[in-house]
Amino acid sequence: QAYFINHIVAPLVKLGYHGIFLDTVDSYLLATKTDAAREKQINGLANIILQIHQQFPTIKIILNRGFTVLPKVKNSVSAFVAESLYKSWDEQSQKYKDVSEKERAILLAELKKVQADNIPIIIIDYMPISERQNYLSDANKISADGFIPWVTDHDLNAIGVGDSVIL
Predict the structure, then answer these.
(1) Using one digit for the tens of pLDDT, what is the confidence trace for 125-150?
(2) Residue 23 neighbours by CB under 8 Å, 6+ apart
(3) SS3 for 154?
(4) Considering only CA atoms, which of 129, 123, 167 is closest in space to residue 148?
(5) What is the C-alpha radius of gyration for the chain, rounded to an integer number of angstroms?
(6) Which of 8, 73, 146, 153 could disulfide-link 49, Cβ–Cβ 3.0 to 4.6 Å?
(7) What is the DSSP secondary-structure string of 70-133?
(8) Edge-to-edge strands of the sheet including 79-83?
(9) How far apart are the C-alpha atoms of 142 and 160, rounded to whole Å?
(10) What confidence tens digit (pLDDT) does each residue in 68-90 have?
(11) d(CA 127, CA 129)
């Protein structure tokens, strides 16, 4: 944790960066097999986020996922990201896909908890560049759900479509 804060975050702040994006905060779930191991990871992640906020109170911290960590750090984060509300990229099949109603309902239930804490939520949906003409309609659906949209391709090569909301 000290290494990350002192050798990654601090130099970025010194260079003038005003925020950090912590990607796939819930990745620990892939490696932990017991409740005790998961709780240890949650506490470790929460601790580092709280330390970053304490040492650099003016920078924005944005989490990608991390629903289990968020309750411990909700006063330290500026926004929360979740991917694939309507459109997704399946890494295994290397194909774009529509998000099923069931998957969307599960994600929306979790996002409602985040909304209850008044944390801005950014949704990133993925569509092929060849369907760029549909980016705006997807972004509009996300906006209608009360979230900040960002629609792009899975490699982030396309200039995305979203809101002009600035955190």
Answers:
(1) 999 999 999 999 999 999 999 999 99
(2) 64
(3) coil
(4) 123
(5) 17
(6) 73
(7) HHHHTTT-SEEEEE-SSEEEETTTTEEEEPPHHHHHHHHHHHHHHHHTT--EEEEEE--GGGGG
(8) 19-22, 60-64, 79-83, 121-126, 148-152, 161-162
(9) 14
(10) 999 999 999 999 999 999 999 99
(11) 6
